[in-house]
Amino acid sequence: MEKLVIEGGNLLHGEVRISGAKNAALPLIAASLLAPGIHVLHNVPDLRDTRTILRLLESLGLSWEREGSTLRIDGSGLRYSEASYELVKTMRASVLVLGPLLARLGRAKVSLPGGCAIGARPINFHLMGFEQLGVTCDLAHGYVDAHIEGRMQGGTVYFDIPSVTGTENLLMAAALAKGTTVIKNAAREPEIGNLVNMLNAMGADIEGRDSERLTIHGVENLTAAESTIIPDRIEAGTYAIAIAAAGGDAVISNCNPGHLPSLVEKLRSAGVEVEVGDDFLHVASDRARTIRPVNITTMPYPGYPTDLQAQFMALMAGCKGLSVIHETIFENRFMHVAELKRMGADIQIDGRVAMVKGLGDVPLTGAQVMATDLRASSSLVIAGLAAEGRTEISRIYHLERGYEDLVGKLTAVGARVWKEDE
Ligand SMILES: CC(=O)N[C@H]1[C@@H](OP(=O)(O)OP(=O)(O)OC[C@H]2O[C@@H](n3ccc(=O)[nH]c3=O)[C@H](O)[C@@H]2O)O[C@H](CO)[C@@H](O)[C@@H]1O
Ligand SMILES: C=C(OP(=O)(O)O)C(=O)O
C-alpha cells in the first residue's frame, strides 16, 4: 500500500487545471445503460470511482473505450441485471444502475451500496420513488431485488430530504416510464443538471432543470448521444481552500465558479482574495494564520457543500479565532477531526457541531495520519500543506476515488508532495 508524504510550509503559485466532476461522470456513465448505440462522453476524469463504474457496466454486458478524457460506451450489449457486492461495495454511486436497469430490463438486483463511511446513507428514498412508479422492491441478503412487469408508470415522488443520487435514479427510471412523473423537493446540485442535459440529448423530455420540481414526460425509446462532464466543483473548491491555507497566489482554471457560490463568499469573509472569472478562480492568501474565522453550515445546493466541510475545517484549524462548523447532511462526517488533532488542531465536537479554535501564530505540525474517507483525506492534505514539517497520510486509496493526478497538480504549484510505499 502507498502513503502520501507532504513536506509542508511551501507557498503555492501557478495554475491548477480542474478535471471533470466525479459526481457528474458517475450518473452520466450509468445513463449510457438507458439506450443502445455509442454514447460519447467528454471530460471524463480517470479516477478509481470512474474505473469501478466502468467495470460494473462491463459486468452488465456493455463495452467501452477511452481516448484521453473521452469515453465511448456501447450501450447495446446490456443483458445482465445483477450488480455484485464485490463491485458495489467501494462506491455509493453504484446504486445509480438501478434506475436504468429497471427502465430497460424491468429487473435489477443490486447490492446495497458502499462509499464513504460518513453516515448510515440509506436508499429508502430511491426505493420509495421506484415503488411510486409501480416497481416491487425487496431487500434480502444485502441486495435490493427490484422488478416490474412491462413499463413503469409515471407518478409523483416527493423526497423528504433532497437526495442527489435519489433524484438522478428517479430521473433515469422515469425517462422511459409511461406517462408523466413529477419529482418534488428534488436535489438541485449542478451534476443533476448535467444529467438532465444528457437525458434530453438522448431524446428524453424533462422540464424544470436546476429546480426543486422536475417533470419527466416518459418516452418509449432513447438513443445514444454526446455529452460533456461539467468541471468538478469539489476539486476546484479543495484547491481554492488549499491555496488559502498554505498561502500563495494561484489560478484554478477550467472550472465553473458559478457552481461554488457559497465557498467564494466564505473565503472572502475569511479575508482570502478571490477573483472570479467565467471559467477560473484566482485565489491569493497569506498563510492561514492571517485568516479570520468563519462559521459554516452545510446545506443542499446552493448552500455550503458537505463535500467541502472537512477541507474548510483544515483551513479554520490554522486561522486566528473560533469558528463553528455545523454538518447537517451526514451524521458521521467528522472523522477527520481526530486526525487533524494529531497535527495540533484544537477542535471540540458536540453532536453535529465542531468548534474549531484556530491556532493563530502557532502553525499546525506535520504528523502520521490516516485517511478515513475521500474528503477527510483531502482535509489532511490541506493541513499537511499548511503545516510545519512532514506529514504522512496512509490509506490514500480514498483520495484516488475522487482526485485525478493530485500529486502532479500540487507539485506543479510548488508543493512538496509524493507517494511512497508504506
Ligand atoms: C455520488 C454522489 O453524487 N455522491 C454525493 C451525493 O451522495 P448521496 O446521493 O448519497 O447523498 P444524498 O443527497 O442522497 O443524501 C442527503 C441526505 O439524505 C439522506 N438520505 C438519502 C437517500 C435516501 O434514500 N435516504 C436518506 O435518508 C442521506 O442519509 C443524507 O442525510 O450527495 C451528497 C450530498 O451532497 C454528497 O456528499 C455526495 O458526494
Ligand atoms: C461522499 C462522497 O462520495 P460518495 O457519495 O461516492 O461516497 C464525496 O464525493 O465526497
UniProtKB/TrEMBL annotation:
Reactions mediated catalytically? phosphoenolpyruvate + UDP-N-acetyl-alpha-D-glucosamine = UDP-N-acetyl-3-O-(1-carboxyvinyl)-alpha-D-glucosamine + phosphate
Q: In which pathway does it act?
A: Cell wall biogenesis; peptidoglycan biosynthesis
Annotated UDP-N-acetyl-alpha-D-glucosamine binding sites: R92, D307, I329
Superkingdom of this protein's organism: Bacteria
Provide the binding site for phosphoenolpyruvate.
K22, N23
Q: Which NCBIfam families match?
A: murA, PRK09369.1
Q: Does the keyword Cell division apply?
A: yes
Post-translational modification 2-(S-cysteinyl)pyruvic acid O-phosphothioketal, affected residues: C116
- SUPFAM superfamilies hit by this protein: EPT/RTPC-like
According to its UniProt record, which residues of this chain constitute the active site? C116
> What role does it play?
Cell wall formation. Adds enolpyruvyl to UDP-N-acetylglucosamine.
Q: Which EC numbers characterise this protein's activity in its record?
A: 2.5.1.7
* Keyword flag Cytoplasm: yes
Tell me where in or outside the cell this protein is found: Cytoplasm
Q: What are the BP-aspect GO terms?
A: cell division; cell wall organization; peptidoglycan biosynthetic process; regulation of cell shape; UDP-N-acetylgalactosamine biosynthetic process
Q: Which UniProt keywords apply?
A: Cell cycle, Cell division, Cell shape, Cell wall biogenesis/degradation, Cytoplasm, Peptidoglycan synthesis, Pyruvate, Transferase
What GO MF annotations does this protein's record show? UDP-N-acetylglucosamine 1-carboxyvinyltransferase activity
What family name appears in the similarity comment?
Answer: Belongs to the EPSP synthase family. MurA subfamily.
Descriptive protein name: UDP-N-acetylglucosamine 1-carboxyvinyltransferase
GO annotations of cellular component type: cytoplasm
Signal peptide per UniProt: none
Identify the residues that the record assigns to the Enolpyruvate transferase domain, covering every copy. 7-410
Pfam families in UniProt: EPSP_synthase
Naturally occurring in which organism (per UniProt): Desulfocapsa sulfexigens (strain DSM 10523 / SB164P1)
